[in-house]
Amino acid sequence: xxxxxxxxxxxxxxxxxxxxxxxxxxxxxxxxxxxxxxxxxxxxxxxxxxxxxxxxxxxxxxxxxxxxxxxxxxxxxxxxxxxxxxxxxxxxxxxxxxxxxxxxxxxxxxxxxxxxxxxxxxxxxxxxxxxxxxxxxxxxxxxxxxxxxxxxxxxxxxxxxxxxxxxxxxxxxxxxxxxxxxxxxxxxxxxxxxxxxxxxxxxxxxxxxxxxxxx
Length: 215
Description:
This protein has helices at 3-25, 27-36, 38-41, 44-65, 76-94, 99-103, 105-109, 133-142, 149-187, 201-214. The protein contains ten helices and no strands. It is globular, with a radius of gyration of 19 Å. The chain is mostly helical.
């Protein structure tokens, strides 16, 4: 395969992954599954996450197989601190999530419970500065690595996908949490932290209380 052909394959694989992932994550598909196969609804998040991980392997493999030279090298004093911030940020923010909820296991385990499972708004300390901290950390990591042509194509596509994904996710959050999320969105930036747009701990607690009544 020529270098150009390989890059086209890399771009196609990442675009296909993003399109399928977004389609399966849409409320329309979830509603269709719940309507046609209600016995599958509780397993949807668990199956979706498993499918997302498995289908990530082909585009990653194609990208790794490209052996072109790096287009640029970041100095260690940028690359390593950025990696440390990314890892620490993910690990720290994980403590604000219920892991079983996140992967979908609790929804499946409690499928016969008298009180149905429902999402809850999460506002970790990072959420007080940016609405989508995991996406922001992901972008920080992606753009502070040494990139060859294939990885540059992948990073551009994934960056656009994360931006579009954040917009689509916000539609779901507004539908789920109403006025509380709209107020939060007006106060905090989406992907790039801005010092003059943030909320403190008290306002975050107030928004969480409001979100519980909006559901």
